[in-house]
Amino acid sequence: xxxxxxxxxxxxxxxxxxxxxxxxxxxxxxxxxxxxxxxxxxxxxxxxxxxxxxxxxxxxxxxxxxxxxxxxxxxxxxxxxxxxxxxxxxxxxxxxxxxxxxxxxxxxxxxxxxxxxxxxxxxxxxxxxxxxxxxxxxxxxxxxxxxxxxxxxxxxxxxxxxxxxxxxxxxxxxxxxxxxxxxxxxxxxxxxxxxxxxxxxxxxxxxxxxxxxxxxxxxxxxxxxxxxxxxxxxxxxxxxxxxxxxxxxxxxxxxxxxxxxxxxxxxxxxxxxxxxxxxxxxxxxxxxxxxxxxxxxxxxxxxxxxxxxxxxxxxxxxxxxxxxxxxxxxxxxxxxxxxxxxxxxxxxxxxxxxxxxxxxxxxxxxxxxxxxxxxxxxxxxxxxxxxxxxxxxxxxxxxxxxxxxxxxxxxxxxxxxxxxxxxxxxxxxxxxxxxxxxxxxxxxxxxxxxxxxxxxxxxxxxxxxxxxxxxxxxxxxxxxxxxxxxxxxxxxxxxxxxxxxxxxxxxxxxxxxxxxxxxxxxxx
Length: 524
Fold this sequence. Notes:
This protein is of the alpha+beta class. The chain is built from ten helices and 20 strands.
């Protein structure tokens, strides 16, 4: 074999099928690239000389050279030696302003951060209050290339900004915008001095003319505020914020056509001497809902408006007291009551103010009672009530109970007040599930009267009342009136008698009492 060739040192592309293995490799030891070592009291990550490769970034090589100025220390990569170490510089750039009569240029103060571990730059502009400019991050963190010079030719390696370029007073051309370094922090100065780099002298930061003009105008405004009543208004706001006087007032307009007595709530805000009036809305009053009668504002006194004074006088706390009448927008509001806070406020801060509360009597309207109309003759009473109780007619719900479903009770009856029809007999059927009644006349031979259905099944009301007939009305001996036809209940069938013995034990006592009453009155 010829001379030994290190295959790892050859720049062979690692493509599928072109992987080269060294047949003469005899050392297969484990790499110790990330082992921790201590050198001169500092903790570093040990670099395996076998795995150390040539860096592809020139700036990263410069960072490595920073740390290996001491030849006695082993070579340590930049991302290990300078982890979490950042250099900070103060800088600025000028922006031309063409369409403004106040300023020709604007100075932007920025901060430049240089990260030693990978030689990347980061630029940010601190936010200024009320500047109206998009401030914040101007340049995200990455390696910034230097602008290509006249001698730069295509194919030449790209140069990046490094730590040797960060000297106070230098100008950095970053993507067409020139930044001038003015100062740095204490750590940056010590770090550059330790490794023999030039730091430079601090440069004065130029003053933005427009910002300086705005600062002077703010000073003048503050001075004028101290000399005027603005200071008193500020004191009034700070002392009385969220303190509101609440009065209950009434506007009596019953003397005018279609007028009425209307109630309002008056709010007086002590923080800025403004007044708000809200209307107390009544239910079913027929008025449109306008809750705000007067929007919150300062109200001029009616006397000042009539005299036309130049200096308008507004209502104050001493003008709005209990028992007084306040004329607002031509309407007299009588203040008759207030809440507890308002009452305590006048008792504490305004001695001698009237504190008498008044009572406003409202006209008592007679209570409206709905009169139920009588039957119309069409359908049952429930049908008539369905169109009376509801806006739209509804089908009446049938009354039914779960017990005794399909258990009709039959009673024998005859006419009570028709002697000519004394021989006619009827069967009254009472249905327990819905308390309905039907009347049937059995046919009789040679009577000349056709038998059959006499009354359709339905609920029947008692004469002169809206109550319906129930079971206790149909005991033998009673007289019931079904639509002007009077029937005398005579007897019951066997099934009905058994049901009454089981379910209504006192029915025999009722029958005996009624029989004795008929004997006394002489009725049969």
